[in-house]
Amino acid sequence: MAPFDAILFDLDNTLCTNDQSGENIYAGAFDAAGLDRFGEPSDLWTALDGPPDHDDHEGYLADGFERVAAKHDREGVDVRALARGFVETIDHSAVSFRPGAEAALAAARDHASVGLVTNGPERRQSIKLDALGIADAFDAVVFAGDMPRRKPHPDPFDRALADLDAEANASLHVGDSLEFDVDGAHRAGLDAAWCPVETGTEGDLDPTSHAPAYVLRSLTEFSAILDGGP
User: Fold this and answer.
1) How far, in Å, CA of 52 to CA of 60, rounded?
2) Where are the domains positioned within the chain?
3) DSSP letters of 65-96?
4) How many whole angstroms separate alpha carbon 176 and alpha carbon 182?
5) Which of 98, 121, 131 lies closest to 17 in space, CA to CA?
6) For residue 148, with 0-12 CB atoms within 10 Å meaning exposed, 13-18 middle and 19 or more buried, which class applies?
């Protein structure tokens, strides 16, 4: 049995996925802003630069829409209105468990203290937890989006471990992002289990910079870690 005193989980794209399509949200942004549509969701995803600034999420989206507008010769468009429309269209309750997530969470609770470390703010993430019925499933919850520093900084992990009274060298973090979850866990001294959203992306792993202790094709494989598997 793997000797973990605490097991931490990421939320978005680890335990759950958003069931709203990108097309629905993108179209809703233009409808809410009262503007004629230009571009495609893929244009916006490409235009967004790095992770969002949790202090100005609308500004982050507005910058992306401004780049898309320039690409389509639509300078002068109210990109702030589009950003607000985008945020207003997102239904944070439209979430569902990733395959194996419920069983993984139950198995973790049978073996160790369990925490949640998510980069989203409480106002959004608590809606998802309620929709999934797991608001009370964790011994500690850290909404890093409300902290000065988010993953991959060690602070969110440190706070969760302090709340669980657990040591980093006896703890595991499970997440989908190499940059935020795996590297962040390593910075804080935890082992990491990487469960990418799309199967087959294991080949994108750079072991010199990340090297998670465990690579999972699905959370259905998680219990093998607790049973001492690879």
Assistant:
1) 6
2) 6-18+95-226, 22-89
3) HHHHHHHTT-TT--HHHHHHHHHHH--TT-EE
4) 8
5) 98
6) exposed
pTM of the predicted model as reported, rounded to 2 decimal places:
0.87
Q: Which two tokens stand for residue 142?
A: 């850290």
Which one, of 130, 121, 132, lies nearest residue 156 by Cα? 121
Taking CA atoms, 8 is separated from 56, 112, 218, in Å, by 27, 10, 16
The answer to whether domain 6-18+95-226 has CATH 1.10.645.10 is: no
- Is residue 190 within 8 A of residue 171, CB to CB? The reply is yes
Q: Are 197 and 176 in contact (CB under 8 A)?
A: yes
Token couple for 209: 């910079």
98-136: pLDDT as tens digits:
999 999 999 999 999 999 999 999 999 999 999 999 999
**Do 120 and 90 touch, CB atoms closer than 8 A?**
no
Cα separation, 157 vs 148, whole angstroms: 13
- Phi, psi (deg, nearest 5) at residue 116: -120, 130
**Cα 5 to Cα 9: distance, rounded to the nearest angstrom:** 14
pLDDT digits (tens, 9 = 90+) for 32-70: 999 999 999 999 999 997 666 556 789 999 999 999 999
Buried b (16+ CB within 10 A) or exposed e, 22-54: eeebbebbbebbebeebbebebbeebeeeebeb
